[in-house]
Amino acid sequence: MRKQEEESIDLAKEHLAKTELCLKEMVNTFNAYLENKGKEAENFALQVDRLESEADNLRREIAKGLFGGAFLPLFRESFLNFVEAVDKIADEAESCCDLIMLESPDVPDDLKLSFKEIVRDSVLSFQPLKEGFGYLLKDFSLILEQVQKVNVKEAEVDQKEEDLTRRIFSSNLELAQKILLKQLVAKICDISDRAEDAADRLEVLAIKGRI
Amino acid sequence: MFSILPGVYLGWGLGSNDAANVFGPPVTSGLISYRRAVVLAVIFILLGAILEGKKCFATVGGITVLSLRAAFIATLAAAMVVNLMSWLGFPVSTSQAIIGSLVGIGLLNQVSICYHKLIQIIICWLFTPLGAAVISYLFFLLFGYFYQRKVKNLQRFNSVARISGLLIICYAAYNLGANNVANTTGAFVAAGVLSPFLATLLGGMSIILGVLTYSKNVVFTVGKKIAPLDPFSGLVALLSTAITLHLFTQIGVPISSSQAIVGAVAGVGLARGAKTVSKTTLFLIFVSWILTLLLALGLAYILGFLFK
User: Fold this and answer.
1) Residue B149's closest chain A neighbor by CA?
2) Mind listing the UniProt keywords for this protein, alphabetically (chain B) (predicted)?
3) CA distance from start to end of chain A
4) Which of A72, A140, A205 is the best mutation test for B, with the most CBs of B within 10 A?
5) Bridge partner list, B64
6) Could you give the CA distance from residue A27 to residue B124 in angstroms, rounded to a whole number?
């Protein structure tokens, strides 16, 4: 394999790992916030910021490598599209943390568990995406299975988003609080939406590898 | 030296147009850079011309009896027709142009024309796109079978496409030189002006001149017409074109690489169950066939008459 391609693949792996870490820290931020550990949540959120910015730098490095001629042009654009889609997942994680740290939405105790669950599930959609990228380097045909897993997870999260939104609006909370919580739920679910987008890009890469 | 200039002119036209058939698809699909493709094409066109180019001399020179003046006019007329047809955007064939003009000059001089050979050549031309289509159809199925099993990931795809692309370009350029060099200087060999070796050398160099000076734009326009195929299909089409050229070189008949590649692309399309060649393209080939022959025949006749 050409050196440039090897470097691009290593960087993309690193980028995925960084995004995964970013999501992990986001879950920690949420858990700490929901458990009223404000200082801890703030520290985790700072980690998310740092990791997101590192992921950004990696994305730029990957683009530079592709500009230098890594991969066939057929794959180059799709590869970058995939990396950019993954980067948006990290962006969403940062955006979620920003929302809770800046706006401090008041989550009622009876909804806390549901919030924890939806955060966990939304982030879980990233796992098959990461595995799918691994198969890009092993066997194109196995990617579609992972893409399907991401889609299933995203659909589950969508359902949970609907249920939670319904619960928020059927509660006795103030309208402003309801709207803020709805925003927060939507932001959390954006992560699985972005994972689904990235999975679609990965699917394009796999399809291009077939005849 | 002046008397063989039309051969250089025709070779230049061939190099600037037909080289695009050989390395257009790999260059536009990014398998290889234009510069590297040109270097390889230059080396292998010349090698093909020198090592196997003389196999088609007997066919080109055997159409009619040629003097130096007749060879000069026939080659000049063929070169002018190739230029005109390229300018009009037809998939022109130098083989059809030179054979047409040789028939024209033979008719003017009222010397014997070997119609038996002419019919054989025309049959071969008919089989050029058909043969290329059949070969590419079979190759697509055969190589596709192995490809699906062996090329399973991104790195292997890149390596296989790049390496096979390089090899196929070399093979195709070699066969372009081998099959088509007789078009440029074959008439002069028959007229006794050039030795076969000198003719292959000079013809090969003139094709290279066309590749070096004028092929870039043609490569990118022709290549893009073919390269919407994925790299695998593009390479199968190119390999089939090269094999078609190779087979016809062995029986000594110069053919059209443009028509061979269109046939090969159609064959790939058939194998994929997709339409890769439009009816317009097929119609253009048919019209260009008739027009090239008739125009070359007519122009050679008129030029010969004017300079009698």
Assistant:
1) A139
2) Membrane, Transmembrane, Transmembrane helix, Transport
3) 21
4) A72
5) B113
6) 72
Sign of CA dihedral A126, A128, A132, A133: positive
3-state secondary structure of B307: coil
User: What secondary structure letter does DSSP report for B194?
Assistant: S
Instruction: Give the pTM.
Output: 0.86
CB contact under 8 A, B154 and A210: no
Give Rg (Cα) of chain B. 19
User: Domains, chain A, ranges and CATH?
Assistant: 3-208 (1.20.58.220)
By C-alpha distance, which of B192, B213, B186 is closest to B7?
B186
* Residue that has been written with the tokens 């609006």 in this structure: A169
- Helices first, then strands: H and E counts in chain A: 7, 0
Longest dimension (CA), chain A: 62
Using only the alpha carbons of chain A, give its radius of gyration. Answer: 18
Task: Return all residues near B302 (Cβ < 8 A) that are at least 6 apart.
Answer: none
Cα–Cα distance, B205 to B181 (Å, whole number): 10
- Encode burial over B102-119: b for 16+ CB neighbours within 10 A, e otherwise: bbbbbebbeeebbeebbe
Which three-class secondary structure string do you get for A145-193? HHHHHHHHHHHHHHHHHHHHHHHHHHCCCCHHHHHHHHHHHHHHHHHHH
CB atoms within 10 A of CB B197: 12
Q: Quote ipTM for the complex.
A: 0.76
Between chains, do A211 and B157 touch, taking CB under 8 Å as contact? no
Whole-number Å distance between alpha carbons of A60 and A11:
10
Q: Which of A136, A141, A211 sits opposite B154 (nearest CB)?
A: A136
| Contact yes or no for B247/B176 (Cβ under 8 A) | no
Separation of CA B56 from chain center = 13
* Pair B186, B121: CB distance under 8 Å: no
Angle at B226 between CA B177 and CA B224, to 5 degrees: 100
| Shortest Cα distance, chain A CAs vs residue B220, angstroms | 15
Digit-by-digit pLDDT tens for chain A (211 residues) are 578 888 999 999 999 999 999 999 999 999 999 999 999 999 999 999 999 999 999 999 999 999 888 888 888 999 999 999 999 999 999 999 999 999 999 999 999 999 999 999 999 999 999 999 999 888 998 999 999 999 999 999 999 999 999 999 999 999 999 999 999 999 999 999 999 999 999 999 999 888 7
| DSSP helix/strand/coil, B173 | helix
